[in-house]
């Protein structure tokens, strides 16, 4: 059964307009060398009034062909679902169409894509959120730069979400260097329940920002089964 995490971040009279950035940049092998985090979400909370933002993470992971556009933004195309411990092979057919082979057993704990296209390829590891599943385009989370023909893209995946106070990046932008600021919140999403709500607050004296968990739990069984079957 797939892991689904619905996260809600909300504020009320924050006292200062604040932008946050969400990304999966936990330490993994090759980080900022061959593997680069991608900005997942950017949200701006107002100085006054209330605001709520919701996101959904699933562990429906996928390898995908990645295209880097203007502004270092990442787009995904041809893709294949697989789980840690599985591997796939990327090939190019006579019509110059990229394709991934069905997954087979690989290195335990790692996602592996073998490049046998005859060309250098940019790849991404991402996940299929409910909205992206319809489009069959995974949300890019990690970017793997210039995988040489005949070599393997081997990626360690950690579903550790970090939040930064940062307004200089866009969603799907590749982080070529670590963010200068220290994350104000970090969470292994496997340790949360299906639905979790956090209050976002700012201390008017220190200026420090915090997220406080106020609600966590599962929906009723009927709704949960219906959501998983859709």
- Trace the largest sheet across and list its strands: 3-13-12-6-7
Number of strands: 18
Largest sheet features = 5 strands, antiparallel
**Cα-to-Cα separation, first versus last residue:** 13 Å
What share of residues is helical? under 10%
Based on helices, strands and strand pairing, what is the structural class?
mainly beta
Number of separate helices: 2
Overall mean confidence score, pLDDT = 90
Shape descriptor reads: elongated
Based on CA atoms alone, the radius of gyration comes out at 19 Å
Query: Which regions are unreliable across 5 or more consecutive residues at pLDDT < 50?
Result: 219-230
Strand composition percent? over 45%
Spell out the helices and strands N to C: EEEEEEEEEEEEHEEEEEEH
Describe the structure in your own words.
- The chain is mainly β.
- The chain is built from two helices and 18 strands.
- The protein has helices at residues 130-135, 221-229, and strands at residues 4-12, 18-23, 35-37, 39-45, 50-58, 61-68, 74-81, 86-92, 98-100, 104-105, 110-116, 121-127, 139-147, 152-156, 160-165, 185-188, 195-202, 209-217.
- Strands 3-13-12-6-7 form a five-stranded antiparallel beta sheet, with no helix packed on it. Strands 8, 9, 10, 11 and 14 form a five-stranded mixed beta sheet that branches.
- β17 and β18 (209-217) form a beta hairpin.
- It is elongated and about 60 Å long.
- The model is unreliable at 219-230 (pLDDT under 50).
């Amino acid at each position: 059964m797939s892991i689904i995490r619905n996260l809600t971040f909300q504020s009320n009279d924050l006292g200062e307009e604040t932008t946050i950035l969400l990304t999966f940049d936990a330490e993994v092998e090759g980080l900022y060398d061959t593997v680069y985090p991608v900005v997942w979400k950017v949200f701006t909370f107002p100085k006054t009034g209330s605001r709520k933002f919701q996101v959904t993470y699933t562990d429906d992971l996928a390898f995908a062909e990645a295209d880097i556009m203007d502004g270092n933004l990442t787009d995904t195309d041809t893709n294949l679902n697989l789980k840690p411990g599985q591997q796939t092979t990327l090939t190019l057919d006579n019509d110059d169409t990229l394709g991934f082979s069905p997954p087979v057993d690989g290195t335990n704990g790692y996602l592996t894509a073998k490049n046998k296209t005859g060309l250098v390829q940019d790849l991404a590891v991402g996940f299929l959120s409910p909205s992206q599943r319809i489009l069959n385009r995974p949300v890019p989370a990690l970017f793997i730069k210039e995988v040489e023909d005949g070599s393997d893209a081997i990626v360690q995946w950690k579903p550790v979400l970090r939040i930064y106070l940062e307004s200089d990046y866009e969603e799907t932008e590749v982080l070529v260097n670590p963010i200068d600021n220290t994350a104000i919140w970090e969470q292994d999403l496997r340790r949360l329940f299906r639905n979790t709500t956090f209050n976002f607050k700012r201390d008017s004296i220190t200026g420090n920002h915090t997220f406080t968990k106020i609600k966590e739990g599962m929906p009723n069984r009927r709704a949960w089964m219906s959501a998983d079957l859709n």
